[in-house]
Amino acid sequence: MEFNEFFVQGMALLGAGIAMVAGFGQGIGQGFAAGKGAESVARNPEAASKIQSIMVLGIALAETTGIYSLVIAILLIFIKG
Amino acid sequence: MTEISALEIHLGSFTLEIQQSICVWLCLCVIFAIFFIFAGKKIEQADPSQASKGIVYVCEEAMNLVLFVVHTNLRETTKKYIPLFGTLILMMLASNLIGLVGLQNPTSNVSFNATLAITMWLMIQGNAIRKGGLFARMKELTEPMVLLTPLNIIGELALPISLTMRLFGNILAGSIITMLVYTLIKAILPWGVLGFAFTPFLHMYFDIFSGVIQTYIFFTLSSFFLGQQVAEEE
Fold it and tell me: What are phi and psi of B53, to 5 degrees?
């Protein structure tokens, strides 16, 4: 099999697509955090604003793994694609 | 990505291309320097017994914003570190929000983020060494057992990389998505009226929400790790 330029390009784009599968875990994590936040607001409605700020912070931290895969996908597309 | 305007300097046969994000960064530095010198003079002349107004009031509110981010982590050492954190927080906030006027964010260039993250990391490590000496710091890395030393070192090195990539990925993804939507609107409607209907939401989410939240997280994390080294235990 010949490894020419187009093969490398196609594989890089395919790799960018596969890298974005990491969004799966990120989605589960963020949904879990938001669900727990809603649960705790239902239990203690007075602390809603405090819970909300902590929840947003946690969600944005959980976003990190998805962002890593996004960076890798963007690098693959713009460098090899 | 290539149609974003850049500054090109020709020196004989040598061409230096400065990206727009770097130009915006340098301009922001100049504006911030002028602003802070001017504000400092105003604050020295201000009367403490009167209610503050004008530029002094703006500076007070900015100070409160910075205290809101760092005070819970740095506690009693806040006053010592507030010049650094204040400058960097306001700088990063302005860099994230400047996408609203159509310029390229300096934070969508990895060099800006890496500069800030490495500054923070060197400061954390420097304070950790100053606290108990170099030997105590190295001993700390071998705990709880000697076999875990490589993992501890990787954990320390992961901090600047994760700080850099989190901010960079968020802002870059936002600017790319916004630019794609603008290009699409330009392709289907030459006069671009639909841009008024669709793009404000994108700017609201990616520039304002994402930018402010990422600034908060960046400095909450870095001040948390710094506070572990410098602040007393509660």
Answer: -145, 165
Contact B165 A60 (CB under 8 A): no
- The pTM of this model reads 0.83
CA distance B216 to B208: 12
Nearest to B26 by CA among B123, B112, B133, B86: B112
Closest residue by Cα to residue B141 from B157, B123, B121, B160 = B157
Cβ contact B214–A74 (<8 Å): no
The pLDDT of residue B44 is: 87
Q: Which residues contact B56 (CB under 8 A, 6 or more apart)?
A: B39, B42, B43, B46
Closest residue on chain A to B218 (Cα): A61
ipTM: 0.71
| A80 shares contact with chain B (CB less than 8 Å) | no
Domain boundaries A30-81, CATH class: mainly alpha
Q: Which residue, chain included where needed, has tokens 């196609």?
A: A10
In this prediction, residue B224 has a pLDDT band, given cuts at 50, 70 and 90, of confident
Q: Closest approach of chain A CAs to the CA of B45, in angstroms?
A: 38
In this complex, is the C-beta atom of A6 within 8 Å of any C-beta atom belonging to chain B? Answer: no
Q: Sketch the domain layout of chain A as residue ranges.
A: 30-81
Predicted confidence band of residue B228 (pLDDT cuts 50, 70, 90): confident
H or E stretch covering B113:
helix B110-141
Residues 129-188 of B with CB under 8 A from A: 162, 165-166, 168-170, 172-173, 176
Each domain of chain B, given as residue ranges in start order, spans: 53-230
Contact status, residue A66 vs residue A26, Cβ threshold 8 Å: yes
Whether B2 shows a pLDDT value over 70: the answer reads no
The 10s digit of each residue's pLDDT in B79-118 is: 888 988 998 999 999 999 988 888 888 888 888 999 999 9
